[in-house]
Design brief:
single chain; mainly beta; Lipocalin; lipid metabolism; fatty acid biosynthesis
Protein backbone atom coordinates (compact mmCIF):
# COMPACT_ATOMS: atom_id res chain seq x y z
CA UNK A 1 0.00 0.00 0.00
CA UNK A 2 2.90 2.29 0.63
CA UNK A 3 4.20 1.75 -2.85
CA UNK A 4 4.80 4.57 -5.30
CA UNK A 5 6.43 7.95 -5.04
CA UNK A 6 6.58 10.04 -1.89
CA UNK A 7 8.14 13.37 -1.00
CA UNK A 8 9.94 13.69 2.30
CA UNK A 9 8.31 16.75 3.83
CA UNK A 10 9.48 16.53 7.42
CA UNK A 11 12.47 15.00 9.11
CA UNK A 12 13.24 14.86 12.81
CA UNK A 13 16.26 13.22 14.37
CA UNK A 14 18.48 13.42 17.40
CA UNK A 15 21.53 11.98 15.66
CA UNK A 16 24.73 13.95 15.27
CA UNK A 17 24.86 13.84 11.49
CA UNK A 18 21.44 15.45 11.43
CA UNK A 19 22.61 18.34 13.62
CA UNK A 20 25.57 18.89 11.31
CA UNK A 21 23.69 18.57 8.05
CA UNK A 22 20.26 19.91 8.77
CA UNK A 23 20.85 23.37 7.31
CA UNK A 24 21.71 21.72 3.98
CA UNK A 25 18.73 19.41 3.78
CA UNK A 26 16.04 19.71 1.15
CA UNK A 27 12.92 17.84 0.21
CA UNK A 28 13.65 14.68 -1.75
CA UNK A 29 11.69 11.89 -3.33
CA UNK A 30 11.43 8.32 -2.16
CA UNK A 31 10.03 5.56 -4.33
CA UNK A 32 8.77 2.45 -2.57
CA UNK A 33 8.03 -0.84 -4.27
CA UNK A 34 7.00 -4.16 -2.76
CA UNK A 35 8.92 -7.35 -3.43
CA UNK A 36 7.16 -10.66 -4.01
CA UNK A 37 7.75 -11.75 -0.43
CA UNK A 38 6.31 -8.63 1.16
CA UNK A 39 9.49 -6.68 1.81
CA UNK A 40 9.89 -3.08 0.71
CA UNK A 41 12.43 -1.82 -1.74
CA UNK A 42 13.09 1.81 -0.97
CA UNK A 43 14.90 4.13 -3.37
CA UNK A 44 15.60 7.49 -1.81
CA UNK A 45 17.26 10.48 -3.33
CA UNK A 46 19.18 12.69 -0.94
CA UNK A 47 20.35 16.19 -1.69
CA UNK A 48 24.11 16.15 -1.67
CA UNK A 49 25.49 19.58 -2.32
CA UNK A 50 23.68 20.57 -5.48
CA UNK A 51 23.04 17.05 -6.74
CA UNK A 52 20.69 14.30 -5.69
CA UNK A 53 22.23 11.06 -4.57
CA UNK A 54 20.31 7.83 -4.98
CA UNK A 55 20.31 5.17 -2.32
CA UNK A 56 18.61 1.77 -2.41
CA UNK A 57 17.58 -0.02 0.75
CA UNK A 58 15.67 -3.21 1.35
CA UNK A 59 13.33 -3.04 4.33
CA UNK A 60 12.62 -6.55 5.57
CA UNK A 61 9.16 -7.15 7.00
CA UNK A 62 8.82 -8.42 10.55
CA UNK A 63 6.03 -10.42 12.17
CA UNK A 64 4.31 -7.20 13.14
CA UNK A 65 2.37 -5.48 10.36
CA UNK A 66 3.79 -2.07 9.52
CA UNK A 67 7.18 -2.88 11.04
CA UNK A 68 10.32 -3.40 9.02
CA UNK A 69 13.98 -3.83 9.74
CA UNK A 70 17.02 -2.75 7.82
CA UNK A 71 20.75 -2.98 8.42
CA UNK A 72 22.94 -0.42 6.75
CA UNK A 73 25.79 -2.16 4.92
CA UNK A 74 27.74 1.06 5.04
CA UNK A 75 27.48 1.88 8.74
CA UNK A 76 26.42 -1.44 10.21
CA UNK A 77 23.58 0.31 11.98
CA UNK A 78 20.31 -1.51 12.61
CA UNK A 79 17.08 0.25 11.78
CA UNK A 80 13.74 -0.66 13.33
CA UNK A 81 11.20 1.01 11.06
CA UNK A 82 7.59 1.51 12.08
CA UNK A 83 4.84 2.95 9.92
CA UNK A 84 3.02 4.96 12.57
CA UNK A 85 0.09 6.15 10.52
CA UNK A 86 -0.80 6.64 6.90
CA UNK A 87 -3.85 6.93 4.69
CA UNK A 88 -1.80 5.82 1.66
CA UNK A 89 -3.33 8.55 -0.54
CA UNK A 90 -1.89 11.59 1.15
CA UNK A 91 0.68 11.10 3.86
CA UNK A 92 2.69 8.60 5.90
CA UNK A 93 4.37 9.05 9.25
CA UNK A 94 7.32 6.73 9.79
CA UNK A 95 9.42 6.34 12.95
CA UNK A 96 12.81 4.65 12.96
CA UNK A 97 14.97 3.56 15.86
CA UNK A 98 18.59 3.34 14.78
CA UNK A 99 21.05 1.41 16.89
CA UNK A 100 24.77 1.15 16.35
CA UNK A 101 27.71 0.55 18.63
CA UNK A 102 27.89 4.24 19.53
CA UNK A 103 24.32 4.24 20.86
CA UNK A 104 20.80 4.66 19.54
CA UNK A 105 19.00 7.51 17.87
CA UNK A 106 15.46 8.22 16.76
CA UNK A 107 14.32 9.45 13.38
CA UNK A 108 10.83 10.48 12.32
CA UNK A 109 9.93 11.02 8.68
CA UNK A 110 6.85 12.63 7.24
CA UNK A 111 6.13 11.53 3.68
CA UNK A 112 3.62 13.14 1.38
CA UNK A 113 2.29 12.26 -2.07
CA UNK A 114 2.50 15.91 -3.08
CA UNK A 115 4.90 18.71 -2.24
CA UNK A 116 2.38 20.36 0.04
CA UNK A 117 0.71 18.98 3.13
CA UNK A 118 -1.99 20.41 5.36
CA UNK A 119 -0.96 22.26 8.53
CA UNK A 120 -2.77 19.59 10.57
CA UNK A 121 -0.47 16.90 9.21
CA UNK A 122 2.61 19.02 9.85
CA UNK A 123 1.37 19.70 13.37
CA UNK A 124 0.81 15.96 13.92
CA UNK A 125 4.36 15.26 12.75
CA UNK A 126 5.79 17.85 15.15
CA UNK A 127 3.63 16.56 17.98
CA UNK A 128 4.57 12.93 17.36
CA UNK A 129 8.27 13.80 17.13
CA UNK A 130 8.05 15.49 20.52
CA UNK A 131 6.36 12.39 21.94
CA UNK A 132 9.40 10.43 20.79
CA UNK A 133 11.53 12.68 22.95
CA UNK A 134 12.80 14.91 20.17
CA UNK A 135 13.15 18.64 20.78
CA UNK A 136 12.10 21.45 18.45
CA UNK A 137 15.78 21.77 17.53
CA UNK A 138 15.62 18.24 16.15
CA UNK A 139 12.52 18.82 14.02
CA UNK A 140 12.74 20.10 10.47
CA UNK A 141 10.15 20.83 7.81
CA UNK A 142 12.18 20.49 4.64
CA UNK A 143 12.41 23.30 2.10
CA UNK A 144 11.49 22.32 -1.42
CA UNK A 145 14.36 21.49 -3.71
CA UNK A 146 15.29 23.94 -6.40
CA UNK A 147 12.68 26.50 -5.47
CA UNK A 148 13.66 29.84 -4.09
CA UNK A 149 11.72 31.18 -1.16
CA UNK A 150 10.61 34.10 -3.30
CA UNK A 151 8.99 31.71 -5.75
CA UNK A 152 5.40 30.61 -5.75
CA UNK A 153 3.88 31.43 -2.36
Amino acid sequence: QLTGRWYSIGLASNSNWFKEKKHLMKMCTTVISATADGNLEVTSTYPKGDQCEKRNSLYTKTEQPGRFSYTSPRWGSKHDIRVVETNYEEYALVATQISKNTGTSTMVLLYSRTKELSPERLERFTQFSREQGLTDEDILILPRTGESWRGRG
